[in-house]
Amino acid sequence: MQTVLITGASSGLGAIFAQKFLKDGYHVIVTARNLAQLEALVADYPQEQWTIIQQDLSSQNGATLLYEAIHRRKLTVDILINNAGFGLMGEFHALSLTQQLAMMQVNMTSLVELSYLFLGDMEAQGGGKILNVASVAGYLPGPMMAIYYATKAFVLSFSQALAEEYRGTPIQISVLAPGATKTNFAQVARVEKTKMFAVPMAAEKVVSIAYKQFLRGKHTIIPGKMNQALVVATKFVPRPLLARVAKAVTRD
Ligand SMILES: NC(=O)c1ccc[n+]([C@@H]2O[C@H](COP(=O)([O-])OP(=O)(O)OC[C@H]3O[C@@H](n4cnc5c(N)ncnc54)[C@H](OP(=O)(O)O)[C@@H]3O)[C@@H](O)[C@H]2O)c1
Question: What does the buried/exposed string (b/e) look like for 199-219 if buried means 16 or more CB atoms within 10 Å of the residue's CB?
Fold first, then answer.
């Protein structure tokens, strides 16, 4: 039985990823802060198929604590889904610095630490797969969500670079770049009423595309024709103009 670790599994994309892997017979380690939601998620599955680890990934040692908790349980991670993340809408200087630094810790630093730690194990095990969740936001500058867009640009660049480092090896690195998707994300980021979220994709659809393409070995996964068209457009439109468009859609 292969083991998959999914961060941010208490809701949205992470919870749906967890259900998919559970249905397909994997051992699933689910982690997030909300313990009750993690328990509800796995309730219908036999206990030997899952492990719950409650962990806040915004603290400086959060990723290390998670890694140590997994090792203490003598579990071996074959697949890592670095999905935990959140956004915040508002002008950079109007938002709390502490909250924005916490966002950078969850979206980037913890993701890097978990990748580093589990890649060591995967190399020793002779293989493994990592899926990092970025966003189409990673392809353009995002005024009114400047730090969030920048964290996703980091995840995209980091993952695509690692994919090349590991090309031709038994280790696969992939990145998922969804567009606006119906989860708790919009409420947490306070962007539900913006034009950006006028027609969000269904989370089930995003995960079912991502799940298939990731297990088939695809490196960059962009679910939905509209999101793919947006990414193509970012290659031809000057970045100052992209920033203006991004600002216009991050409004009510
Ligand atoms: N929905 C979208 O439109 C969209 C688009 C592109 C990319 N994404 C990305 O998709 C990923 C999943 O988000 P989602 O849309 O599924 O949103 P969501 O429903 O809000 O889920 C976010 C998950 O991240 C976890 N998380 C947040 N802060 C955390 C912390 N400090 N420590 C540990 N876990 C934390 C949450 O768990 P707890 O609160 O229980 O800790 C939750 O399980 C994120 O990386 C997001 O940036 C989303």
Answer: ebbebeebbebbbebbbeebb
Taking alpha carbons only, the member of 79, 84, 57 closest to residue 188 is 84
* Domain range summary for the chain, segments of one domain joined by +: 3-249
147-205 pLDDT, tens digit per residue, is 999 999 999 999 999 999 999 999 999 999 999 999 999 999 999 999 999 999 999 99
Helix residue ranges per DSSP H, 73-217: 97-104, 110-125, 146-165, 185-189, 203-215
What is the pTM (predicted TM-score) of this model?
0.98
Q: Which of 176, 185, 193 has most ligand 1 atoms within 8 Å of its beta carbon, as the pocket-test mutant?
A: 185
Of 128, 121, 42, 120, nearest in space to 74 by CA: 121
CA 57 to ligand 1: nearest atom: 32
Q: Kindly state the helix (H) or strand (E) to which residue 12 belongs, with its residue range.
A: helix 12-23
Tokens describing residue 159: 């993952």
Q: Whose Cα sits closest to atom 46 in ligand 1?
A: 85
153 contacts: CB under 8 Å, gap ≥ 6: 134, 137, 138, 139
Give the alpha-carbon dihedral of 17, 19, 22, 23, to 10 degrees. -110
Distance, CA of 177 to CA of 152 (rounded, Å): 9
pLDDT digits (tens, 9 = 90+) for 3-39: 999 999 999 999 999 999 999 999 999 999 999 999 9
C-alpha 126 – ligand 1 centre gap (Å) = 30
Q: For 126, which DSSP code?
A: T
CATH topology of domain 3-249: Rossmann fold (3.40.50)
- Token pair for 73: 């349980």
